[in-house]
Amino acid sequence: MDRVQEERFSDRAEYDAIRDAFVFRPPLLNKARADTILMHPMPRKNEMGTPQDHDVLDSDPRAIYFNQMENGMFVRMALLALVMGVRAV
């Protein structure tokens, strides 16, 4: 899952015209297979519906974006250490 990136549009009207066409809400997840994995790079805006939708999506065991976010932090830490020449932690 990702969002329509508002910052990539030079024309606000063009963004507004397509923004809501790419929203992932609980009814769509309900139709997904049991082995579906829901990922998102965070932060999220309106591409996953309302805050109430977030509560439903966040509680689904197929949503692993919080794990994804935490793991991404550790990967970035390791990459920074590697770039800075740190050999042991």
Question: How would you sum up this structure, described in words?
Answer:
The protein is mostly helical. It has one domain (6-83). It contains four helices and no strands. It has helices at residues 12-18, 26-31, 51-58, 65-83. It is flat. The model has no long low-confidence stretch (mean pLDDT 93).
Keywords:
single chain, 89 residues, mainly alpha, 4 helices, flat
Outline:
The protein is an all-alpha fold and 89 residues long.
The mean pLDDT is 93
Gyration radius over CA: 17 Å
Secondary structure category? mainly alpha
- Main sheet characteristics: none
Sketch the topology as an H/E string, one letter per element. Answer: HHHH
Helix content: 40-55%
Distance between the termini: 34 Å
Domain module tally? 1
Please report the number of helical segments.
4
Q: What low-confidence regions span 5 or more consecutive residues with pLDDT below 50?
A: none
What's the β-strand tally? 0
Strand content is: under 5%
Q: Name the overall outline.
A: flat
